[in-house]
Structures are given as structure tokens and as C-alpha cells.
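Hi Prof. W.,

I finally got the Regulatory protein, LuxR:Response regulator receiver prediction working! I wasn't sure whether to trim anything, so I left the full sequence exactly as given:
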Amino acid sequence: MNNHKRNITLVVADTQFLTNEALKSILSPLYQVVHLVSTKAGLLQYLHQETISLVITDYTLFDFDSIDDLGEIRKQYPDMGIIILTNAITHIKIKELNDSGIKNIVLKTDDGDELFHAIEAALKGKKYYSGDVLDILLKKDGPMEDASLLTTSEIEIVRLIAAGLSTKEIAVKKHISFHTVMTHRKNIFRKLSVSSSPELMMYAIKAGLIDNIEYHI
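And this is what came out:
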């Protein structure tokens, strides 16, 4: 890497103190400005006030409502790079991120070179998945392929069902009609070839749509 600081402003958006401080220590000698934020409000404030070249975030720990939040940021700041740095990633979530225009993903267990490769790619507007992320994408066993047929909205509804929300509560939360939620449910059941909510939950856990801890009986 170049020993001279580059005139680039980065934001590290993570709720883990040690992660933020470690990344700042690694990146500060190389890039002119490295901001640390632990809330979405703090991130949006920096994006509004300054020209940010790159955001590095663990979206699973941050207070994003969904991946759609990241997609909206991507639309508002199309020239800004976004890197996902996480240990909670699945085939389905990679697809969701890709659909939102976010195509730079690295695991926290990867070595430093992978992160720097991702940074350089993101700054040039190019895609970069680390080797371990590519391994996840290449795994074709299990129900992943069927689950990937679900739309982003359908995946969100599966997660709300897993959280214990009723059809009426889902309709209120998503600001859609009861009938629309029922239609989504029918489509989800049809696509995944399941016939009950418990069967849907087991399928969703195996497919990586939800974690065991997300499922409320």
C-alpha cells in the first residue's frame, strides 16, 4: 500500500467499539479522514455534511431497518462506495445486497489484504467479494436456490412471521393491506412448497433467511 495518505474520506459504521477502533487504526495512516459512527443518524449526518468516498459497515449490527435502507443510501449517493464487513452473511443476504446495488462484501475473519482489495474495488466502482464470500455463493446444496426465488418484500414478511407478528400486525408495520399480506403469504408458501407456518420457519432457518434466535414460537 502507498505510505502517503490519500485524500479520501471514509466512514466506519459499526456498533462494536473494538471493530471501529481497530479499523481506524488500520485505515488512518492510509486515508486522509476516517470517521467512526455507531448509529444510522450519525452516518446520515456525515453523508449530508461531507463528501464521503466510502462507507464500511456491518449492516447486521447497525440500526438499519432492513437492507432496503442501505439500498436507499446507495441511490442517494451513487458515487460513494459501500463495503459490507460482517460475519453474518448467507447466500440469500448476498443476493439481497446485490439487488440493492451493494456488491463489495468481506468477512471480519478475512485477512487485511481482502479488506484493502475491497476498498480499492469499491473506490473504483467495481465489485469485490472475498474468497470466503465467494465460497458461500458457490454452495448450491440445500434449499438455497428455491429460497432465492423470494423477493425482498417476501423475505421481510418471512422474518416478520418468524418474529411472531400476526398478518394484521404485519400489514400495519409495512403500511399495506391485510389482503396484500395474505397474497404475499400464499406466494411464499407456493414458491417454497410449504403448507404451514412451522414448516415455513424450518425451511427459512435451513435456507439462512432467519437465525434460530429470530424464531419466536
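The chain has a mean pLDDT of 85. Does that look reasonable to you?

Thanks,
D.
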